Amino acid sequence: MIDITKLKTFVAVSDLGSFSKASEMLYITQPAVTQQIKALEKMVGAKLFQRQGGRIVLTEEGKRIYELAKSLLKDYENLMEEMAKIKKDFKDTLFVGISTTLSEYRVPELLVEFHSQMPGISIRAFVENSQQIEEGLSSGVLNIGLIEREPSDKFRAIRWFYDEIVFFTHPAHPFAKLGEINPEDLYSTDLIFREVSSGTRKVVKEELERLGVIFERLRIKIEINCGRSILSMVKSGYGCSFLSRGILEKELQEGNIVEVKIKGFNARRWYYLVFPEDTKMTFLANKFSKFILSKRENELVKDEERVNL
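RE: above sequence
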């Protein structure tokens, strides 16, 4: 008997070209991924994958199974959607990708609220930078994503809400007493930044370069892919950084950190709800989209600019 779970794992490994990436996005251990693939290979009676240049690729037999598996999984999603229209106790899993920044201050509470409305479902949230989430969407492992940059053309995107990135430090830092600095003053202080592939870093870099700052000359001493960790380090008295205002609001109000204005600096960006252009949204992804979009109605684009969900 065909196991839908094994087929999903097989397609994920194929699209991502990695057992470890498939493991991470599917929320199962790598040994479990290997076991499922071996079980499927035993059922088929042939090897489905082979190594090629350090990457996992399909064998000829694997390619034949892949196309059929994709078609079967699509039919399965359609079946689940029809069942959902009939049953009130709908059970399925939503695989959602969330950019690191959003995972730290806005989306967790919304996930809890959404689940309370559909208690029979499971939610698997994959937290990574926007690039990794796009890869997960392309592979079909993720159903929908919330990212901090405009995606590539192969995705359908809906603007969710507008966000501001602010420069901050601890109250004892010399910049805190000034209140406002010139862009070139940044050369004189130690900085903590998000990782190179971060959407936050990209926006800040572009804005600073617009103001004439040579980014490579900045004293970036620590790089880390977690905004909360950056906040903790600055609170402890080390350096300065840039983060979304939403992450910092409470600490700013309590005086644990201080916002410092940079003359001419205005880093703002939209967060986007994204899903593959050429793929029909699953029932759960559709429900989640409508739920998410209802939460920031006053900051969204006009109704007529949205896609039909």
